[in-house]
Specification:
Elements lengths: L1 H13 L10 H6 L7 H17 L2 H14 L17 H4 L2 H10 L2 H16 L17 E3 H17 L6 H14 E2 L4 E2 L2 E3 L19 H17 L3 H19 L25 H17 L5 H17 E3 L5 E3 L2 E2 L16 H4 L4 E2 L3 H18 L1
Antiparallel strand pairs: 1-4, 2-3, 5-6, 7-8
Helix pairs in contact: 3-4, 3-15, 6-7, 8-10, 9-11, 10-11, 10-12, 12-13, 12-15, 13-15
Length: about 375
């Protein structure tokens, strides 16, 4: 099956343009005009990583062409609005550092500083953590750690003098507020004001453990551990990461190595083995083992998960094309006028399950690059 994955990636590129990426199913379904967003950011991140490990120049060329469409010469970004204070919109900015190094285009640097300016002004909770979005006041979501902190760390490394204390402090507060000591898992969200309809009135936590949220959290940690060059701050993140990986690992499906949409609910009716979060956990395990910050046993455990995804959800359709299925399209908490998104078990299993969406494809491709490193 591995030999077909390269052709699968090629097909996704063949079907995509910067204006209409085939992998962005949310935008397609909602008829959105081209805009800067985290879904495309995840895919471009994965393509740059794949280009590095495979030497496939087309991946790098596509990534540069794609990003060029969105960045103007003055550094302004198509379809981006700082006033939304949306951490999701920071995520795609992480690719700008590598593209700037590669090309020297000043517009990339200008866009980097525009996004950094958002973080400078981003509202914060009483713990000092970034609000997830302007429309989610006082709320921390695990997703947001991936969306903002990897960019933030890259900025501090390249332009900020290597001060990572703010990032590490935010992770420590998440560990203190959102980690369940009994289950050894992280809750999806926390409202520090305790006002959101979905939040526990005593703890502020949401009700359940959503797989992809934990996946975002784990890959944010392993990617930042890879970048941070301050050994003291790095050790603090390694401790949080190792604990999170040990916690989630106990919930893997024995047969496939995959993980369930609502992690701790196993084979409960309606629950299912989900691709995007499983890919994220597998990538984090394999990369963490490669970096030497978690036990080397996790390399094989992650590879088993990747193989399980290939066996269960990477399927050939009637036209002979590969498709990656089992991907939860989207899930969230609120806002106030969307009470269906209440963090309940019933809510998480009700969201659409799709094929070929970048929230699943991108971490799957990242997994593939780690498998290639393992087998070199």
């Amino acid at each position: 099956m591995y030999d077909k994955i390269d052709r699968y990636i090629e097909r996704l590129l063949d079907k995509s343009t910067p204006e209409a990426p085939y992998w962005n199913i949310e935008s397609i379904r909602q008829g959105k005009p081209p805009h800067w967003n985290y879904i495309d950011g995840c895919m471009i991140t994965a393509l740059l990583c794949a280009a590095e490990i495979t030497g496939e120049q087309r991946y790098a060329d596509f990534a540069e062409e794609f990003i060029d469409y969105y960045i103007s010469e003055d550094g302004s970004i198509r379809g981006y609005s700082q006033e939304k204070f949306n951490l999701d919109d920071v995520n795609e900015g992480r690719v700008l550092f590598d593209l700037y190094k590669k090309t020297g285009k000043e517009k990339y640097k200008k866009a980097i500083f525009l996004l950094r300016d958002q973080l400078e002004k981003q509202p914060r909770t009483n713990t000092g953590n970034f609000w997830h979005k302007q429309i989610y006041p006082d709320q921390i979501w695990l997703d947001g750690l991936y969306m903002a902190q990897v960019f933030y760390v890259r900025f501090q490394m390249e332009f900020g003098g290597g001060d990572y204390s703010d990032t590490v402090s935010q992770y420590k507060h998440v560990r203190g507020q959102m980690f369940d000591e009994e289950k050894k898992l992280y809750y999806h969200g926390c409202d520090c004001s305790r006002k959101a309809f979905w939040a526990d009135k005593e703890t502020g936590r949401s009700k359940n453990f959503w797989l992809r949220a934990i996946g975002w959290f784990c890959i944010s940690l392993v990617d930042n551990i890879d970048y941070i060059d301050d050994e003291n701050e790095r050790k603090k993140l390694i401790a949080i990461f190792a604990e999170a990986i040990e916690g989630i690992s106990q919930y893997s499906d024995p047969e496939t190595g995959m993980y369930y949409q609502v992690v701790d609910q196993g084979v409960r009716e309606g629950n299912y083995l989900e691709t995007s979060g499983s890919s994220m956990i597998a990538y984090a395990m394999m990369k963490g083992a490669r970096l030497g910050v978690i036990d080397e046993k996790y390399a094989e455990k992650g590879k088993k998960t990747f193989d399980g995804i290939c066996d269960k959800y990477l399927a050939v359709n009637d036209d002979g094309d590969l498709n990656l299925g089992g991907i939860c399209l989207v899930a969230g908490l609120g806002p106030e006028d969307n009470r269906r998104r209440d963090g309940s078990y019933e809510y998480y299993i009700s969201e659409p399950v799709v094929e070929n969406d970048a929230k699943g494809v991108a971490p799957f491709v990242l997994c593939y690059t780690e498998v290639k490193r393992l087998t070199k």
